[in-house]
TrEMBL record:
Keywords on record: FAD, Flavoprotein, NAD, NADP, Signal
Signal peptide: none
Keyword Isomerase attributed: no
Pfam families: Amino_oxidase, NAD_binding_8
Family matches, as InterPro entries: Amino_oxidase, FAD/NAD-bd_sf, Retinol_saturase
Organism field: Nocardioides taihuensis
Domain Amine oxidase, first and last residues per copy: 218-513
Name of the protein this chain belongs to: Phytoene desaturase family protein
Amino acid sequence: MTQTATPRTPGLEGENETWDAVVVGAGPGGLTCGAYLAANGKKVLVLEANQVVGGSTQVFRRAGNKFEFDVGTHYVGECGPGGRMQTALSGLALTERITWLRQRPEGHCQIMIPGTTFQTPTGWDTYLDRLVAAFPEEESGLRRCVTIMRTIAAGERPLLRPFALLRWGVRPITTLMAACGLSADAQAVILAENGDYTWPPHRTPTAMHAGFLHHYLQAGAYYPRGGGQVIGAHLTDVISTHGGQVRTKARVEQILIEDGRAVGVRVRGGEEIRSEVVVSAADFKKTWVELVGDEHLTRRLRRKLKDLEMTLPMFAVYVALDVDLRERDTPPLAWVWPTNDVDGYYREVSAGRCPERMPVGISCPTAKDPEGTHSAPAGYSTLELVSWAPREHAFWNVKTGPADGGSYRRDERYLQLKEELTQRVLDTAELLIPDIRERMVFCEASTPITQERFTLSTDGTCYGIAPLLKNLGPFRPRVTTHIPGLFLAGGSTEHMFGINATIYGGMGTAGAVLGRDLFQEVRDGAVFVDEARLTPVTHDFDPLLASKPSSVIRRPVRRRPRATA
């Protein structure tokens, strides 16, 4: 792929020009929607406030480009043949350009709680067998619990599924596990990976957690070859080679509504861009409250927004080590809990407190993608350590959020809290990598305030609106809205959150705009992209450079040598 990124002068190209569709936000959902629209002949403009496309799938580099870290691409389900990811990418001719690496089929994620280490396998049968092996005295309760979750999520017993949904699916997962008589340790293992949606178990419907487990159990976990940035890079290429345009550093401040219809957007600086259709892949709450405005909301929507809760935000620590962890057979993915009280930790964080002992998800890109050329030099490893922390600005000693222009990065109390939580995260990570501090050559942390700054998300959330019963199934926001010409994409829509769901959902939003069932068309074999028009991928392809269409890259990347046979 070409390695040039010519800066665009805002206002010179596109001003006084009408587009078929303007997409607000270049996360995976917005980019996929834009790509499908462009591939179907629509003149599309995607606007992104950040300087890099990709949303939470983007990467960043440090130490003179020596190390690369994923912001949020850690592991993804349903990426094998016939899965939703491959289906969504196939309609854009991207299945060969974005390839997915299966992670440890024997156990893609290692779960550690005090006294127990558990490998999450592929397949419900194997999952149950391993739970019984870990807790043999609880076999009866485990079989009952897993059978109910499997019935709800996998749809293998269609006659019993409605009963299971009504009896257990709508109730909290903690209620089901308690009814099955499961110990705190067994519950902790079943719940350990729920940091993938950061919501308290006692408020999570069983159907939600069962569906989450099924996402990985049905076909394993995957990671994109080359890191998360390849997603944004190739989706951007589809748009730009099929008559569309992606602009970064272009923050939308208002969706223009005239005579009750969406007719375009206004970006920071005053430029107005007209379009037949507007798709907002921005934060759900801010879309309505800030971009659309109260005068255009229905009474029902106002009530919903008033009580809307977002998933808890992440606290992440990015670490580089001067050792190749593959030589130690360190798992590429792990969730480490220093306590078995999963729900108790969530209760503390939800109350605005951060306990001394923090659970940590550990992701090692250099182990997940051994031939990755940008993650680290040979002999080094990179780690992303993720936990979650209070969302309140007051907790972080921030009066005004960065989305509203507030400054925080030099505040002494903020920096002190950031350092304290970093050390707590490293304490937990030592349970898996005892010498992590001794081998550490780089360390940087990001807070919920950081996430808010770069993604403009409410409360710094990564996953959008909370997975409460009132926000699931038929109650979840549709991609169509009450305002003609305005559509939604992203993790807070009916298609759910997570990389797989938002990409698949982006195709769904494009279908709604076009008035067609793109899901069925693609499943029937439709490919809308002319692959010959896509930019050739060359040996020096840099997905981060390709994801900065409005920036100049002044520092060459340092590439990691590919593994040799």
